């Protein structure tokens, strides 16, 4: 009986350890790869949080691409990613213009559903990385674009049985609390380092279902302690707000 209890304890510990994804693939465009790439930051945050060096993230990005520009069949063969086994989580990001018209939103949703089904066939969890809105110095700017973004990602998420990382919502909340914060690159479309960090914290919150507050990771010590804490708090608030709206 004693040895049976020990065996069951070890088995349970193994199951608990396996509850979080250790092989994660991000698919998208420059919104992901700016500033040393979201996938790298998320990996370092997860390693710190779980104290597990066996977490590996990969990224497949094409500048200016839409989601349907990616060869998902190729990417779902883990050998093409130089991995030792199949990924546990696929996170997909659409092109920023894919939310702007009903036709483009329809294509985006169809693609998300198609790619998710193919991934889920292998037992892979799927999620969507919600993009942020343009600033008014970008010629594509339109007021309240975040509403179209939310509609597109929530619709695609529900139809594809995918979680949504509410990055765009986090941007809006951050700018509301601190209008002077520089989340965007000066071009008004791409993320600056703080924006990339905010997006990474949101993904962290989605994966762990916990707040990123207290994480020490700071990329080359380029971010102030005050900004780190602010972004961590906003990411968690955005995720909690999203859960109420999405579920």
Plain-language structure description:
The protein is of the alpha/beta class and 247 residues long. It has one domain (21-246): Rossmann fold. 49% of the residues lie in helices and 10% in strands. The chain has 9 helices and 5 strands. Strands 2-1-3-4-5 form a 5-stranded parallel sheet, with helices on both faces. Helix 6 (145-159) links the parallel strand 4 (125-129) and strand 5 (163-165). It is globular, with a radius of gyration of 18 Å. Residues 6-17 have low confidence and may be disordered.
Topology:
Layout: H1 2-17, E1 23-28, H2 30-33, H3 38-50, E2 56-61, H4 72-75, E3 89-92, H5 102-120, E4 125-129, H6 145-159, E5 163-165, H7 167-177, H8 193-208, H9 225-246
Parallel strand pairs: 1-2, 1-3, 3-4, 4-5
Helix pairs in contact: 3-8, 5-6, 7-8, 7-9, 8-9
The low-pLDDT segments are 6-17
User: What are the secondary-structure elements, in order, as H or E?
Assistant: HEHHEHEHEHEHHH
Global morphology: globular
What is the CATH architecture descriptor?
A: 3-Layer(aba) Sandwich
Q: Can you tell me the CATH superfamily? A: SGNH hydrolase
Q: Which radius of gyration do the C-alpha atoms yield? A: 18 Å
* Share in β-strands: 5-15%
Helix/strand class: alpha/beta
Total domains, how many?
Answer: 1
């Amino acid at each position: 009986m004693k040895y049976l209890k020990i065996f069951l304890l070890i088995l349970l510990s193994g199951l608990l350890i396996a509850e979080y994804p250790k092989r994660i693939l991000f698919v998208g465009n420059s919104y992901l790869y700016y500033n040393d790439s979201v996938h790298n930051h998320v990996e370092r945050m997860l390693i710190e949080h779980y104290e597990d060096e066996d977490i590996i993230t990969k990224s497949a990005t094409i500048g200016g691409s839409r989601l349907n520009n990616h060869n998902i069949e190729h990417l779902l063969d883990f050998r093409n990613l130089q991995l030792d086994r199949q990924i546990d989580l696929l996170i997909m990001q659409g092109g920023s213009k894919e939310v702007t018209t009903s036709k483009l939103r329809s294509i985006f949703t169809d693609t998300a559903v198609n790619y998710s089904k193919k991934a889920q066939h292998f037992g892979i969890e799927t999620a969507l990385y919600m993009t942020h809105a343009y600033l008014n110095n970008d010629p594509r700017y339109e007021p309240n674009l975040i509403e179209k973004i939310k509609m597109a990602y929530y619709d695609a998420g529900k139809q594809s049985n995918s979680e949504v990382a509410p990055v765009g919502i986090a941007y809006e909340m951050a700018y509301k609390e601190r209008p002077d914060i520089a989340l965007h690159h000066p071009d008004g479309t791409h993320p600056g380092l703080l924006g990339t960090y905010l997006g990474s914290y949101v993904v962290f919150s989605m994966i762990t279902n916990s707040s990123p507050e207290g994480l020490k990771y700071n990329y080359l010590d380029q971010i102030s302690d005050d900004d780190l804490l602010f972004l961590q708090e906003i990411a968690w608030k955005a995720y909690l707000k999203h859960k109420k709206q999405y579920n």
